[in-house]
Amino acid sequence: MNWFRRRRRKMQFFKLFTVAVVGLVVIAAGIAFAQKSTPKVTTFPLDRLDLERPRNVKTEVVTFRGKKALRVTDTTRVDVADGIQLVLLDNIDFKDGTIEVLMSGVPKSDSTSGAPRGFVGIAFRLSLDPKADAPKYDAFYLRPTNGRSDDQLRRNHATQYISYPDRPWFKLRKENPGIYESYADMEAGPWIKVKVEVHGKKANLYVGNSSQPALVVNDLTQEKGSIALWVGTDTLAHFADLRITRAD
After folding, report:
1. Under CATH, which architecture does the 40-246 domain have?
2. Mean pLDDT across the stretch 33-49?
3. Which of 7, 74, 146, 228 is 20 to 30 A removed from 59 (C-alpha atoms)?
4. Hey, where are the domains in the chain?
């Protein structure tokens, strides 16, 4: 009888032990899956000038429209084409994910170009050619002065995708009119909320609080790289609240 009781206790203990081990394995697997699948979110401190590398622009930390912001001013000659005025952000390796930022762009007060628009945007998957010290990237940018123009054609050119240096805006407009630019409501001066979603060859640009993208691109050219703030010729820009969510 005692032998039978001891055997039953051992069996009960073995069952409880097995259940406990299985439970621990399930919990560990769940934690590992959560850690693997949880996106990596980074709030980039734009007031840390030591983490930024300006190229052909001047940068300052300022208070703009109630927010601590990075002011970026184009310093190139008026005849220099857009694409080289950047603020490279250090310690970011970006492939797929989401970039969210507040931005504002206006023409410089001393603008000398023929038709300044206050171009402002985000470059992503950026890499530098070590020999030529030249950037390659995909980018979305805004033409804020076009957003509420009385000219409908200008309105249709309020947002723009480019791939620098091989696919500038004028080449894309000539070869694929209406495909890589679109309308979005915006004003020059106030903060504009921008979100860029990137996955594989596809990227969506959201402007304001719209749940639908203003511009959809299905043939990105770069695979991975860094992120940079982007401004155009004769532009005075501000950036704030940069948030990067990496899916990779």
Report:
1. Sandwich (2.60)
2. 74
3. 146
4. 1-38, 40-246
